[in-house]
Automatic annotation (TrEMBL):
This is histidine kinase. It comes from Pararhodobacter oceanensis. Its main location: membrane. Its EC number is 2.7.13.3. One of its GO terms (molecular function) is phosphorelay sensor kinase activity. Residues 181-236 form the HAMP domain. GO terms for cellular component: membrane.
Length: 462
């Protein structure tokens, strides 16, 4: 529908506002027209009275009747030097219903009387007082019928309304054409550019080239251009990453099978009685285990197959103790085994997916343990938890060396946020996704030379 478009609504509003303005102007125009109409009758009556006075009153009844007919009044009363004299007279068809004094009347009265004159009844007679030609020193009173005034006012009002309608239509059409050229056409161009770009966002030729002369539209076109350029670049990068991810997934799959075979062989080597082999076997097994975990994490991230959490009620302390026991075993061969501190109330119950939460905590604690072991110094990791009004908070605090700047800047970015050499950063990305799946958040609270602290917030009810 035309009036649902921007151009149609603008055209309609222009017509309405112009007509409204003309209607507001119509009332003063009608008041002014009525005043001039009555003053004209007074001037004619004054001329008739002066003609009568100049002839010493020797005019006939027929001429007097013609003078009154020309003036459009029933009688004329002349006031001069405080003397009131009936100069010309004819039969009055009815009583006088109102008297109007045109000597400097208030504007409000003019507006009110002008509108009221349009709705007078037939046979109404009014008296008008005024001094149209003040130099004559005369004050006139005339009586007259309201029908001619009423008919003239309606004819004048209709002319004004028709003229207003023509002016409003011409104005609206000119504004419509101007808006079409200056606003609607550039907006349509932006819309067409967006539609064309949506069909092939990788095609740089479809990016809009700003050329509008209107400041706001130019800014909109420039913003759209920047957005399209960024999106095209992002799509290209994602396409390359997808291709790279496919290649990495295939490599990881094959490498995992190779490493599994190597792990089996290494398990047999561990039974050797050679002291050198005995010392080297655990390191070899740890390296193979880390390589297998890396391959599995890469494959899991690429598939994005983590199911939604299966919520159940469980004691958090039991889960934390199981996770800590596994990390203690993994780090038993370190020069300075890491000390683990658990500060979780035995009564603290969570409604969450225990397997997924175990993966999250295990990832945070493993990263902290490996960072501390890499320094060759002693250290500790504390896992504490508290229940709040809206959810539960779990904190993992270590005394390690802190995260390097590059890791902090890309902490939750895949393949960019690794904190240790050879790491991919997938662990934290997956952990953050698992926590978000519970409606919670995983944040880095602090990091520095004194250690690192991560905070997990989980809402009540999972």
């Amino acid at each position: 529908m035309f009036f649902r478009t921007l151009s149609g609504r603008f055209l309609l509003l222009t017509l309405v506002f112009v007509l409204l303005a003309e209607v507001l102007v119509l009332a003063p125009s009608i008041a002014r027209f009525r005043e001039e109409y009555l003053l004209t009758r007074l001037e004619r009556a004054q001329i008739a009275s002066l003609a009568l006075l100049a002839s010493d009153g020797t005019i006939g009844d027929k001429l007097a009747e013609e003078l009154l007919l020309t003036a459009g009044v029933f009688n004329v009363v002349l006031r001069r030097d405080a003397i009131r004299e009936l100069v010309l007279a004819s039969p009055v068809p009815g009583p006088i219903s109102a008297t109007y004094d045109l000597r400097a009347p208030p504007t409000v009265e003019l507006l009110r009387d002008g509108l009221a004159a349009m709705f007078t009844e037939d046979g109404t007679v009014i008296r008008v007082i005024g001094d149209p030609v003040q130099e004559a020193g005369l004050l006139l009173e005339v009586t007259m019928a309201t029908e001619p005034l009423r008919d003239s006012l309606w004819a004048y009002a209709l002319r004004i309304l028709w003229l207003s309608l023509l002016i409003s239509m011409a104005t609206a059409m000119l504004l419509f054409l101007a808006v079409q050229r200056l606003i609607v056409s550039p907006i349509r161009r932006v819309i067409d550019s967006m539609a064309a770009y949506a069909k092939a966002p990788e095609d740089a030729r479809r990016i809009i080239a700003p050329d509008s002369r209107v400041t706001e539209l130019r800014e909109a076109e420039e913003a759209l251009q920047h957005m399209q350029e960024d999106l095209t670049q992002a799509l290209r990068q994602k396409e390359r990453l997808a291709q790279l991810g496919g290649a990495v997934a295939r490599i990881s799959h094959d490498l995992r099978n190779i490493l599994s075979t190597a792990t089996l062989v290494a398990d047999r080597i561990e039974n050797s009685k050679d002291p050198a082999v005995i010392r080297a076997a655990p390191k070899l097994l740890n390296s193979l285990s880390r390589a297998v975990n890396l391959c599995e994490s890469t494959l899991a991230f690429g598939k994005a197959e983590d199911p939604p959490p299966k919520l159940s009620q469980f004691a958090l302390r039991t889960l934390v103790e199981d996770m800590v026991e596994g990390e203690q075993i993994a780090g038993r061969n370190a020069a300075h085994p890491v000390e683990f501190l658990v500060d979780v109330p035995p009564t603290l119950m969570l409604r969450a997916d225990p397997e997924q939460l175990f993966r999250v905590l295990s990832n945070l604690v493993r990263n902290a343990r490996q960072a501390i072991e890499a320094t060759g110094a002693a250290g500790s990791i504390e896992i504490c938890a508290r229940d709040g009004d809206e959810g539960s908070v779990i904190r993992v605090i270590d005394t390690g060396p802190g995260l390097p700047k590059r890791a902090r800047d890309n902490l939750f970015a895949a393949f960019q946020g690794g904190a240790r050499k050879g790491g991919t950063g997938l662990g934290l990305v997956i952990a953050a996704e698992l926590v978000r799946g519970h409606g919670g958040t995983l944040d880095l609270v602090r990091t520095g030379d004194e250690g690192t602290e991560f905070g997990i917030w989980l809402p009540h009810g999972g």
